[in-house]
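thought: fold this chain, then report.
action: predict
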Amino acid sequence: MISEQTNLIAHVERRRVPLDEIVDRDSSLSTTLIRGLDILACFLGGDQTLTNAQIAARVGVNKATVSRLCKTLIALHYLRRAPQGGFQLAPGLLALSYPILSHMKWRRQAVNLMQEYAEIAKGNVSLAVFNGADAVYVQTVGDITDFPHVPEMGMTVPVAESSTGRSLLSLLSDEDRAAKYLEIEHIYPDAVERNKERIDRSIEHCRAEGYCISYGEWRENIYAMSAPVGITKDGLEVTLSCGIPAYRARKEEIEKDLAPRLASVAKNLRLFNIFGS
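observation:
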C-alpha cells in the first residue's frame, strides 16, 4: 500500500511546473522570486528536512544558487537550519497564514455542526476552498487516532481527482469552470480530460442531490463524500467533505444515509450570514 508521505511527494512532484514554462507564459514574472517560493514548495511532500543537494535536484538549479536563496529565506524566517544539517521550514511561515485564517471566521462557526456529523459518520470532516489547481483544507474536526488519512489545515488535494475538488467545481459558472480547467491543465496535464466523465457526473450529482462520492480514488483506503456549501461574500468557494476508512462504512450506508446527511449539514451551513445571495 502506498504510504501517506509517498502519495504526498508524488502529488507535489506532479504539480511542479518548470520555471521556463512559467516565464514563457509571462516574461514580466520574477524568476528569483519563483525559485525562492519553489524551494518552500519542496517541503509540501511532507519532508521535515531537506539538504542543499535534495533541494537543488527538485528545483532544478545548481547548489550554489540554492545556498544563496536558502540564506535569504533564513534571514526572512521562512527557513531555518536543521540541527543535524540541511534546512527546515521555519515558524515564520505560520505568521503568513494568520491573516488568511483570521478572516475566515465562518470556519469556527461551522465547527459544532461538523463535529456532530463526524461523530455520526465516524470520520474526519473538513472545509476546503480552491487553491489554484488544488483544493486546500482550512478546517478539520474528528478523530485523528487510528485513521489512515487526516486532512489537516493547509493540506491540498488535486481538484480534478478528488470529491472535494469536484464539489468545488459544481459551484462555478460554466465560464469560470472553463477557466479553472485551463488552470488545472497547466499544473496537471491531461487531468481534466482523463477524469472528465467523473467530473461531469460529480457536478451533476452535486447540483441535483447536494453531494458527490469518491470510493478510494484519491486515497485508496478512504471513502470520501463532499457537499458544496456556497460562495462567501468575499468570493471564496467552500465545500464540506468527510473521509471515512473503507473498513468502517458500507457503500450502501454512505449512499442512503451518510452522504445525504452531509448535504443537509452543508445546507445548514449556508444559513450562516457569510454567503452572498
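thought: worth noting. The first strand starts at residue 79 and ends at 81.
final: C-alpha cells above.
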